[in-house]
Amino acid sequence: MIPQTTELTHPQADGLRGLDAPEAAALVCAGQPCPAPLRAAAARAEILLVQVTPTDRVEPTDQLDGHGAVTISHTGPSPFYASDIDLVLRSNGVRTLYVCGDPVAGMRLAYDAQRKGYRAVLVRAGNAPADVLGLRMPQISQAELTGQLAGTAPGARNWHEAVKAERMARPFAARLEPTRTALLMIDVLNDFCAEDGVIAKTKAAMPRVTEALPRIRTLLEGARAAGAHVLHVQAIYGPMFRGQGSPYRYPSTQTREGAVWCASAADITGAAPAFDPTMVEVCREGTWGADFVEGMGPVDGETVIRKHRYSAYLDTALDAELRRRGIETVVLAGVTTNCCVESTARDLAMSDYDTVIAEDCVAVKDLVLPLHDASIEQIRTYFGIVTPSDRILDAWH
């Protein structure tokens, strides 16, 4: 996650124009050492300095070079995706990167950073705009950036320990500020929740799912009224996306419900079993079962996230959409607690989003009720706040 920054007003040194939002800026040098004048100006302005260097090691390394400076190694052609730079940047509240150094490495890093939701500005050596292979990329000259850094007074920065500590200890109501909060509706779909859905047709009792639906609806209406952004997760499974980790039901004598729900968990001996695909896979593309429960689907301005595994975070646009909107906190509601809700909560928390579970708005079928209880305790202990939906609504209003 890229935390929303607080706008700060700093006195400008020597009448020069300073950087916009310096508290959330970083100078990133890719492939080559940072020019000395630029490095010195960044240090005086207390701008986080990140040096990214290639390495032949299998595992990239990070090295703290001093106050506000870090060296990160990368192991592949992309200095962004083959390093820990995203982890370092989001951990330190960076939103804008000024990228200098080797032109090719810098362009790759800036392009990938933009795709991840950062604002990336290429720093060119001369005054003439650099050719970036036809990509529309903001640019600034080294001389102009050095001048802006000289005009930026030192002050509180998101990478400062005191600032980070204050943000990490925000009270519950502050975390739920609607403009920086999203409600994530997980798999509120017919196959999982409706009487005629695939799960109900297996004769599994699911009163807790049915009872949760009105509370989920109330939470949805409250999020809309408060102005929090709503994202609807839609599971889409079937042959195109079928793999070891996709939901696909295999019989088992080792589980409470007599089945496992992906090939990775299937301990098969003898001939592989054959099933009717309409019964072993839920939420097939284009079916009624994959549609949202009536009255619980998206309205204009809301986002649909299609997923093909349990987690709504993996292989989806969720992270990019949350970053684009400046979202810091994600409230989760939907089904099932022990599977898609917990999988998503884990990924969000480990990506530095404040994660909140509306406890009375998540549910499972009765057969696996102990797994619901275990998931709630697991999330509450390690990954996020678990609290009744009324408390969330009170914070929003």
From TrEMBL:
Domain of life of the source: Bacteria
Keywords linked to the UniProt accession: Hydrolase
Name of one Pfam family that matches: Isochorismatase
Gene Ontology MF annotations: hydrolase activity
SUPFAM superfamilies linked: Isochorismatase-like hydrolases
Isochorismatase-like domain residues: 181-389
Record-linked InterPro entries: Isochorismatase-like_dom, Isochorismatase-like_hydrls, Isochorismatase-like_sf
Full protein name: Nicotinamidase-related amidase
Organism whose genome encodes this protein: Salipiger thiooxidans
